[in-house]
Amino acid sequence: MSNSTEKHKKFILNLKSNHERGLAHEALDEVFRKLDTSTFGTSVGPEPNVFTVEPESVRHMQSASQTSDFNMGVRLKVFSTLLGDGIFSSEGSSWKHSRIMLRPFFSRENIKQIHAMEPFTQSVIKAIKQAPQMTLDMQEIFQNFTMDYTTHLLLGESCDCLKTYLGEPTSGSIANDMKLDFAPSFDKGTEYALRRLVMGSFHWLYQPRQMFVEIKKQHDFVDYYVQKALKMNSQDLEKSSDDGTFFLYDLAQKTRDPKVLRDEILSIIVAGRSTTGSLMTFLFYELGRHPKVFTRLRDIIRVQFPDVASIALESIQGCEYLRWCLNETLRYDPPVPFNSRTTTQDTVLPKGGGDDNQSPMLVKRGTKIVYPLWTANRMEKYFGKDTNSFNPDRWGSLPANGGTVFMPFGAGPRNCLGQQLALLETSYVTIRLLQTFDSIKSSHKEARKKSSAIMVMMDGCKLTFG
Ligand code: HEM
């Protein structure tokens, strides 16, 4: 065996063990650097993989013209146990139907009603003020916030994670134990799904009984609201949809199929809750470590948003430095650290072949092509010098959309439906917290970041507010 093959094998073994420990983002980055390449192929477990940071190839595999050569791979099978044929776990005509049906809900007109976030933001502020020395794990708080706001938006009733955290009484029409069970059950269900994702095509070997118990709890929770909506006549539905702001009541005017309603609701919770919670967590973690960035953002916010009433979609979109801070977080700590597609037949990627990776590359059928955002987002070629540091100012000289390599929300016809909503949610919370608190300090010297389907902080995100 040649030296370079030996070296390659060592990297891959290292990659596998790091993947299991949630450090695949760092291990992959090291492989890319040591091999000095933008694309390499290997097997992780029994499956052939290609890892590439060539934007042309990554956009190609996600583009509308390529749906016969690339599919979503094992993700569909893993998630369909929970999500049935919802948008996140379907393909072809079923996916297209979902996408057309759901898209209007994410329109500018709908998402701009941001003041619905205020009560949940008030709970976040209260949690901070009540914490000893105003020090607490903000990862937990932000994940509670995004669960509360997402369920409020989708179902018209929040699952009250923040109230539960604060020890306050919860309200709502559903039985309290069902409500309180939902978020923990969702988290456990996500853990099972992630373990199965790592197993690739062997996911079917891992189907513990408890996984089905957790899935049933999630189904029962959503079904309660679906049945409530289905009992309504069209006038009541229209009233309850509150001009389209409550997704379920809006959707129930388009379909009366309870399974479709459940599958789509759960799909959106899966796609939108933890991702947005991750963006908020990492933004605040970085603000806690970069006092100059924090002070500048706080001062800008206090001028541009003197009170709650001044916060609106338009004023948020007009706040350039806030956008830079969000973009820099999406670059530096991408909430979805890997994206992938699997080839359905032998096919060709436009880049990645040849000695310099700039020639077309033949890829065999059944190969998983992985795009590691962590590495791509650290390439000096696209993001300028010093990409290993958090520096929102770099966005002053980058295209507003980050250019061709920047794909935190995916690309092509299956890109993120909730992108604007996620940015709005994070902006609103950030503005409200920086209006309220004068300082933030991180208690972590260097946090351990864990990557799986979503980027999280392994030991939570302990921050002290002042
Ligand atoms: C910072 C937060 C978020 C990030 C980084 C993010 C990222 C992504 C990415 C990368 C994809 C594409 C996956 C692929 O190519 O296979 C995606 C899809 C999707 N996202 Fe998001 N997302 C975020 C928030 C949200 C929110 C708030 C919602 C809705 C409430 C949402 C709903 C969806 C849906 C429905 C899809 C599937 C689209 C389809 O398959 O047609 N996302 N997201």
UniProtKB/TrEMBL annotation:
* Residue span of region Disordered: 337-359
What is this protein's name? Answer: Cytochrome P450
GO function term, MF aspect, one: heme binding
Tell me the lineage of the source organism: Eukaryota, Fungi, Dikarya, Ascomycota, Saccharomycotina
Keyword set includes Metal-binding: yes
Please, which domain of life does this record's source organism belong to? Eukaryota
Q: Which cofactor does it need?
A: heme
User: Which residues of the sequence carry a binding annotation for heme?
Assistant: 416
What the entry lists under InterPro entries is as follows: Cyt_P450, Cyt_P450_CS, Cyt_P450_E_CYP52_ascomycetes, Cyt_P450_E_CYP52_fungi, Cyt_P450_E_grp-II, Cyt_P450_sf
Q: Which UniProt keywords apply?
A: Heme, Iron, Metal-binding, Monooxygenase, Oxidoreductase
So which residues are the signal peptide here? none
Give the source species: Candida theae
Q: Which family does it belong to?
A: Belongs to the cytochrome P450 family.
